[in-house]
């Protein structure tokens, strides 16, 4: 057993200088953390320096640290107004305004009312004017109404000399009567003026009454893996609509929860992971059903033949049990979509397309421009002169590639229409929630979001997780994190726009690793995943804005709150009305025994397993240990881990049989059904059932810590024998029908 590191020291014996620790703390970088075993771990000085540098804070020498510490003390005094102000409705808040000492100052709030596109309807929506032009696509003219004058509070604060200038502080009170919304806070003094974003968020995101009144259940699905005979080799939005309808009409499900539909690259090779997208805001055209685009029906015979020829080779892949070939699928779909794109649209359809582009704004045009440029470069390195979306070089190329920019805008419109239809299909069949979407933690460092949002992302670091029981080497997800201060300076607009897109056409959204809205594990470039540090975020702002946008969209929010975290975080999320995640396989008491159903949280989505583990049958057979041993991922003895897995299974069988949910020697199917009955006995508002569990699948969709060693995110849905299960055959599967019966059993009176 190793000695615990002493306070102020790290595991490698080095010591964090007090001034470096002070600087790190001032910028939200945690110098220590509690690991999954409850032990206090110290962060190394080199990690702290690298993370601070990624935040734009000089810390490479003792002199730089000293200067940065002094600068940090006066940071908030340098600006007249804060970067942004986010508060809760019904709360009176005081805001500091910094002006020349002794100068008079006034402050007021302009309230948000309605938003209308600033671009005239006649403007070509995909041609974006140069920065600063009044007709730039994506700018919005907000119709402003009530102006609320603020009163100055009787708060005396001593002035301070900042950068050789004497600065005073006036404190103004934001009244507790401000409405929900995105407002603007103004201040004026001695001919100088400033304004900043003011966001008033709901105190709590309330669950709809019909969901709060009765537990809802639904299937959890990796959509690409669920294929029909009409699919082009992977599940798509037409399949989602059919799946939603089937599981509601035949199974009584209230929702279908899916993997992120985020955008992939427009060129080969495609990244298979839905959690490493090129953009989180926009969707992957891989999920388009070409035949469901209205214009496809009116193609000429010759053009229709081109679409059919493109589909033939990949449609055959739908019944192939091998890994899903996204590259082949995209080549086929892209060829077909380019044919459909050239077909004329009716006046109403063209207007709907134009209005979609205008409503999505500059973000969509930048994304489409990135796709067009990426395609144009054809594998060549991205030139430095095209690194800024607002540069003249990008503007010139955007105009030259106008047709391709239009094409990629059109694809997003088509996806939006088909997603809306899929969600509607579930609701029309009786679902209370419909489609439940998923928002990934971040996006590819070389992708569209990283290009368009570069100003609010940190560079030189990536996001991951420290070591835990299931990933003993830690995890590096390769994602660039939000830069906390830069995001605030942008008025949280990139975050707001992301949420507004993700919250479209769904009844719920799962926020992957919601703990990242509190703190993220930043790993310096080139370092091991374990050699990181936590960077804190303004969770009150990020969770508040999430609640505001979800409230406006009428969407329930589930936060994936698994992993290493402080206990108060779950309490905070529950207070704000964000549901947590309870995974039965992980819910154990201090002795290691499964907690009783009655001890589960009510404000949660309860599931048996997750997509990062084998389906339940495989997990309880210890196949997660076998797989990790085969891939060389274990840092503990495999024999010990297998024994632990057996103990886990035995403890589950004991508690299930004691409650009369299984026999003392249950079959695999009986055990899986017993575990789901166990979840039905919990007070959890939502219960999720893995579709893989329902059909007897044993293969994991993802093995964390691997890349090419395992076919992550490419495993088609199959039964226990490895035979592909198509969408048309779902309710012919005896195991699925039996589990659906379990989920629809009424509780005893």
From TrEMBL:
Residues annotated as transmembrane: none
Q: Where is the MalQ N-terminal beta-sandwich domain?
A: 81-122, 128-202
Catalytic activity field = Transfers a segment of a (1->4)-alpha-D-glucan to a new position in an acceptor, which may be glucose or a (1->4)-alpha-D-glucan
Q: What UniProt keywords apply to this chain's record, in alphabetical order?
A: Carbohydrate metabolism, Glycosyltransferase, Transferase
List this protein's GO terms for biological process: carbohydrate metabolic process
Presence of the UniProt keyword Nucleus in the record = no
* A single MF term (Gene Ontology): 4-alpha-glucanotransferase activity
- Kindly give the NCBIfam families that the UniProt entry links to this protein: malQ
Question: Which family does the similarity line name?
Answer: Belongs to the disproportionating enzyme family.
- What protein name does the entry list? 4-alpha-glucanotransferase
Q: Species name for this entry?
A: Promicromonospora sukumoe
């Amino acid at each position: 057993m190793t000695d615990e590191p002493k306070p102020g020291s790290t595991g490698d014996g080095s010591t964090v200088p007090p001034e470096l620790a002070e600087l790190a703390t001032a910028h939200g970088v945690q110098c220590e953390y509690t690991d999954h075993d409850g032990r206090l771990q110290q962060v190394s000085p080199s990690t702290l320096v690298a993370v601070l540098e990624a935040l734009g804070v000089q810390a490479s020498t003792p002199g730089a640290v000293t200067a940065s510490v002094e600068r940090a003390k006066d940071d908030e005094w340098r600006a007249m107004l804060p970067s942004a102000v986010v508060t809760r409705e019904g709360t009176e808040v005081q805001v500091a305004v910094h002006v020349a000492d002794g100068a008079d100052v006034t402050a007021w709030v302009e309230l948000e009312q309605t938003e209308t596109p600033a671009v005239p309807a006649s403007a070509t929506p995909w041609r974006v004017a140069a920065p600063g032009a009044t007709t730039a696509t994506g700018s919005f003219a907000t119709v402003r109404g009530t102006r609320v004058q603020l009163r100055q509070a009787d708060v005396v604060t001593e002035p301070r000399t900042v950068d050789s200038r004497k600065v005073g502080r006036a404190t103004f009170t934001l009244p507790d009567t401000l409405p929900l919304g995105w407002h603007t806070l103004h201040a004026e003094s001695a001919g100088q003026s400033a304004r900043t974003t003011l966001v008033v968020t709901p105190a709590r995101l309330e669950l709809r009454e019909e969901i709060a009144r009765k537990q809802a259940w639904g299937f959890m699905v990796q959509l690409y893996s669920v294929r029909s005979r009409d699919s082009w080799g992977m599940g798509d939005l037409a399949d989602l609509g059919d799946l939603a309808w089937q599981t509601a009409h035949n199974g009584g499900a209230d929702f279908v929860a899916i993997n992120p539909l985020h955008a992939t690259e427009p060129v080969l090779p495609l990244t298979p992971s839905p959690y490493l997208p090129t953009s989180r805001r926009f969707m992957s055209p891989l999920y388009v059903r070409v035949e469901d685009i209205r214009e496809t029906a009116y193609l000429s015979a010759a053009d229709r033949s081109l679409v059919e020829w493109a589909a033939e080779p990949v449609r055959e892949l739908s019944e192939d049990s091998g890994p899903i070939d996204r590259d082949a699928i995209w080549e086929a779909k892209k060829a077909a979509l380019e044919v459909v794109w050239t077909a004329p649209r009716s006046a109403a359809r063209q207007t709907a397309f134009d209005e979609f582009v205008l409503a999505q704004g500059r973000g969509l045009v930048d994304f489409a421009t990135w796709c067009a440029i990426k395609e144009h470069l054809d594998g060549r390195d991205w030139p430095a002169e095209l690194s800024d979306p607002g540069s003249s070089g990008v503007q010139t190329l955007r105009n030259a590639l106008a047709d391709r920019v239009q094409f990629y805008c059109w694809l997003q419109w088509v996806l939006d229409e088909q997603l809306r239809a899929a969600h509607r299909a579930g609701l029309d069949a009786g679902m209370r929630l419909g489609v439940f979407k998923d928002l990934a933690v971040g996006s590819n460092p070389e992708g569209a979001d990283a290009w368009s949002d570069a100003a609010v992302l940190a560079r030189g670091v990536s996001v991951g997780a420290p070591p835990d029981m299931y990933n003993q080497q830690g995890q590096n997800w390769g994602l660039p994190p939000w830069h906390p201060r830069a995001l605030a300076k942008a008025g949280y607009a990139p975050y707001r726009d992301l949420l507004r897109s993700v919250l479209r056409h769904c009844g719920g959204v799962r926020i992957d690793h919601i703990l990242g809205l509190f703190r993220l594990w930043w790993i310096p470039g080139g370092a091991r995943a374990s050699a990181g540090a936590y960077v804190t975020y303004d969770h009150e702002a990020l969770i508040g804005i999430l609640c505001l946008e979800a409230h406006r969209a009428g969407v329930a929010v589930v936060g994936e709150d698994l992993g290493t975290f402080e206990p108060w975080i779950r309490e905070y999320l529950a207070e704000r009305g964000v549901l947590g995640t309870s995974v039965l396989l992980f819910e154990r008491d201090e002795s290691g025994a499964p907690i009783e159903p009655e001890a589960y949280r009510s404000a949660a989505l309860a599931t048996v397993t997750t997509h990062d583990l084998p389906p339940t049958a495989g997990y309880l057979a210890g196949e997660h240990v076998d797989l990790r041993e085969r891939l060389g991922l274990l840092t503990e003895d495999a024999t010990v881990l297998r024994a632990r897995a057996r103990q886990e299974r035995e403890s589950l069988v004991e508690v299930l049989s004691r409650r009369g949910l299984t026999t003392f020697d249950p079959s695999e199917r009986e055990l899986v059904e017993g575990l789901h009955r166990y979840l039905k006995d919990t007070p959890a508002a939502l219960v999720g059932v893995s579709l893989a569990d329902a059909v007897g699948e044993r293969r994991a969709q993802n093995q964390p810590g691997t890349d090419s060693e395992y076919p992550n995110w490419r495993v088609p849905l199959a039964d226990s024998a490895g035979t592909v299960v198509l969408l048309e055959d779902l309710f012919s599967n005896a195991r699925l029908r039996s589990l659906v019966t379990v989920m629809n059993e009424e509780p005893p009176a």
